Amino acid sequence: MRIISGKYRGRRIIAPTQLLVRPTTDQAKESIFNIIHNNFYFEDIKVLDMFAGTGNISYEFCSRGAKEVLAVDMNHKCSAFIKKTAEILKLANLEVIQSDVFQFLKNNERSFDLIFADPPYDMEGIKSIPELVFSRKMLNEDGWLIIEHSKAIDFSTFPNLKDQRRYGKVNFSIFTSLPPAFVE
Questions:
Q1: Class of 26-172 per CATH?
Q2: Each residue of 29-39: pLDDT tens digit?
Q3: Using the 8-state DSSP alphabet, how is residue 178 labeled?
Q4: What is the pLDDT of residue 182?
Q5: pLDDT confidence of 178, banded at 50, 70, 90?
Q6: Nearest to residue 131, comparing CAs of 160, 107, 153, 154?
Q7: Do the Cβ atoms of 140 and 115 come closer than 8 Å?
Q8: Could you tell me the CA-to-CA distances from 93 to 37, 90, 121, 137, 166 in Å, in that order?
Q9: What are the structural domain ranges in the chain?
C-alpha cells in the first residue's frame, strides 16, 4: 500500500503478511479522498478510523494534515503495527486504541468531523454502524460517516444517507449529520 497525497506522498508501507486484512485499494482510496478533499479542510478535521487494519486510511489522513486521527482496531497485531508505523513516520496526530469497534461505539464520548469504517465485508452488524454513530451523536455538525462495504449491503433506506459510490468491488456509503433535506 502507498500513501497517495500529502507530506508522505508516495511512501510505501509494507504490512506484515500475518495481518489478515483487506486494505482499501489505491484506486478506491484515491477516489474517496478526492471527494473528501472537495468537502473538508484536512487541517480542521478530527477523524475516527474504525476497523483500521493496517492503518492505511489513518496514514492518508495524517499525511494530508488532519488535526487528529483516532484509529480503532481490536486485533493486537494490527494495533501494534499502526503504532509502530506512526512512530517511524513521527505521526503526532495519530492515536491508536485496541478495542472491539462496537464496544468502542457504545462507550465513546468524543465527536468527530469524519468517521471512516472499513469492517470485514462479511461481518455481522455492519448495518448497525450508522445507527450507533448517530444515536451516540458522534458526528460534529456537517460531519460525515463513510462506510466501505460489499455490494451485498444496502444502506439506501437509512435517512442520513448522502451518497453512494462504487469503485470496482469497493462500495462506499456516505452519511451526513444533517438531515437529507439540507444536503446539497
A1: alpha beta
A2: 889 999 999 99
A3: S
A4: 46
A5: low
A6: 160
A7: no
A8: 18, 9, 28, 23, 30
A9: 26-172
Task: Read off the DSSP letter of residue 2.
Answer: B
**Euclidean distance between CA atoms 120 and 157, whole angstroms:** 22
- Report whether 139 contacts 156 (CB < 8 A): no
pLDDT at 148 over 90: yes
Alpha carbon 120 to chain centroid distance? Answer: 13
pLDDT for 130 beyond 50: yes
56's CB contacts (< 8 A; 6+ apart) are 1, 13, 23, 24, 29
Q: What's the DSSP call for residue 175?
A: E
**What sections of the chain are H helices per DSSP?**
26-37, 56-63, 76-89, 101-107, 129-135
Residue 117 φ then ψ, to 5° = -125, 125
Question: Is the Cβ–Cβ distance between 151 and 137 less than 8 Å?
Answer: no
Average the pLDDT over 121-136 and give the result: 91
Evaluate if pTM is beyond 0.85.
yes
